[in-house]
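Would you mind writing out a protein's amino acid sequence and the numbers that encode its backbone to help me picture the idea?
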Amino acid sequence: MKILDSLEFIDSVSDGVFISHEKSTKRYPLHQHQKGQLTYIEGGITYVTVDTTTYVVPAKYFFWIPQGIPHILRLSHSATVLHSLYFYTSDDEKDPFYTTLGIYAASDLLIEMINYTICWQEQMINPDTPNFVFIQALKNILPSFKHKNMQLQLPLSDNPRMIKITDYLDIYFGLPLSLTALSNQFNMSERSMSRLFQAELQITFLQYLKTLRIVKAIELLMKTEHSVSEIANTVGYVTLGAFSNAFYEFTGIRPLDMRRNK
């Protein structure tokens, strides 16, 4: 059962929790539900778009989307598995965590608890379900993550010209790129290129490139056994120190620590 086919069912029992574990499609178009969504990402990277902002969720991280927020999900590749729980909202006022969109590194305990819920795959469970207290406990521990919110944002655009440019950067992100070189590549003036980035992505070319390189670094940390030094070179950094500092600035964690958590 695909989530988009289950939206009415998800909201049908106000005090229930709908559970879904699925190897997912590439994209979920704009949708919303009246329950809080906890989704743990297994494999690949997922992009969550809310309004005009796209958040990057690496593998072994989870995101929380409060009730009623329209969002789009895009997956980096078909190997991604989404483990999702859609929670009742009757107690959301007890902690700001439940009303704030967030992205967090999943602890071993949380991963084990989420994996346990596979026994309720595609079921709506409620207070009368045996062991429902387990689901309550899972929701109750989520606020303990609220000080580790990582909001790495990579803007997207539907502008055909911008898509060609970002597709190019997605391939050549590791080269010593500059605004001048990129402008020449697409037969544009530097001023026009800068304006296009600001108009379509609301950030500068350099900001976009730095963010893209960190996203690519996260993918490599999660999916390969390359050393951190090799990854730094691959994504365009000359020194390991500069890479580590930039990675920490964006994610709040050092590359080696993320590797250990994968």
